[in-house]
């Protein structure tokens, strides 16, 4: 980052969260350069823990490769702005809200639109998802100690009704948590993953995107 970004003034909804915001901006630069967040696709969040969880989420429609500190919105646990006069938050805000809430209680949620994720999400949609097994890189997913692992990636149908999709995701989290342990794909759309903080969720994006390319190339897609 060449520019010296200014801190927010006292009383601004994003004041005090400059470091977390800069971590998300760094994700944007990296993911854009890798082709995973091009054309304003993707959205990113970091969760502010507390009695009442809050989120800082990317504003909608921003170029994720060139995010500024001001391109973020602070939301309450329902996904509503904590203060008026903020930008419009991501169109996919409610997916972040569901993943920030219990029982997932993510510390950061990241969403990418890679070519391999998009192709696999269509290829395996009729089976509801697909298994990844045997790759050493699986150990990059939190809590995975061996490559001798079968990791299920669920796929949800795409829709413009994000609150409805968020309810579907929540239902799977409640009924089949083992099937949605680290992330999911949306058909012909992209990947959602999360972690305890931005570094963990960023690692999960990198691991999934690596594995998706392996699976896709092996299939000859
Ligand atoms: C060309 S990207 C289409 C919208 C989308 O899927 C996305 O991830 C970005 O939406 P946002 O409102 O978060 O900018
Ligand atoms: Zn998207």
From TrEMBL:
Keywords: Amino-acid biosynthesis, Lyase, Metal-binding, Methionine biosynthesis, Zinc
Pfam families: Aldolase_II
Any GO molecular function: zinc ion binding
Top class in the EC scheme: lyase
Pathway it works in: Amino-acid biosynthesis; L-methionine biosynthesis via salvage pathway; L-methionine from S-methyl-5-thio-alpha-D-ribose 1-phosphate: step 2/6
GO biological process terms on file: L-methionine salvage from methylthioadenosine
Record note on cofactor: Binds 1 zinc ion per subunit.
Enzyme Commission code(s) on record: 4.2.1.109
InterPro entries reported in the protein's UniProt record: Aldolase_II/adducin_N (IPR001303), Aldolase_II/adducin_N_sf (IPR036409), MethylthioRu-1-P_deHdtase_MtnB (IPR017714)
Binding site for Zn(2+): 111, 113
Domain Class II aldolase/adducin N-terminal: 22-216
GO cellular component: cytoplasm
Cofactor(s), by name: Zn(2+)
Substrates-to-products reaction catalysed: 5-(methylsulfanyl)-D-ribulose 1-phosphate = 5-methylsulfanyl-2,3-dioxopentyl phosphate + H2O
Highest rank taxon of the organism: Bacteria
Protein function: Catalyzes the dehydration of methylthioribulose-1-phosphate (MTRu-1-P) into 2,3-diketo-5-methylthiopentyl-1-phosphate (DK-MTP-1-P).
Record-linked NCBIfam families: salvage_mtnB
Family membership noted in the UniProt record: Belongs to the aldolase class II family. MtnB subfamily.
Protein name: Methylthioribulose-1-phosphate dehydratase
Organism encoding this protein: Mariniblastus fucicola
Gene (name only): mtnB
């Amino acid at each position: 980052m060449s520019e010296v970004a200014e801190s927010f003034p006292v009383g601004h909804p994003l004041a005090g969260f400059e470091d977390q915001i800069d971590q998300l901006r760094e994700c944007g630069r990296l993911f854009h350069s890798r082709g995973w967040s091009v054309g304003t696709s993707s959205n990113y969040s970091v969760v502010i823990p507390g009695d009442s969880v809050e989120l800082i989420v990317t504003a909608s429609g921003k170029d994720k490769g060139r995010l500024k500190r001001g391109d973020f919105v602070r939301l309450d646990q329902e996904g509503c702005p904590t203060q008026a006069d903020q930008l419009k938050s991501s169109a996919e805000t409610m997916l972040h809200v569901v993943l920030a809430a219990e029982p997932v209680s993510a510390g950061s949620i990241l969403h990418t639109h890679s070519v391999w994720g998009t192709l696999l999400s269509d290829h395996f949609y009729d089976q509801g998802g697909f298994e990844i097994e045997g790759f050493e890189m699986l150990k990059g997913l939190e809590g995975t100690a061996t490559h001798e692992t079968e990791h299920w990636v669920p796929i949800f149908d795409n829709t413009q009704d994000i609150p409805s999709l968020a309810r579907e995701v929540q239902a799977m989290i409640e009924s089949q948590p083992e099937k949605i342990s680290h992330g999911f794909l949306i058909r012909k759309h992209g990947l959602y993953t999360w972690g305890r903080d931005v570094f963990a969720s960023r690692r999960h994006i990198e691991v999934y995107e690596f594995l998706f390319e392996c699976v896709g190339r092996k299939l000859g897609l």
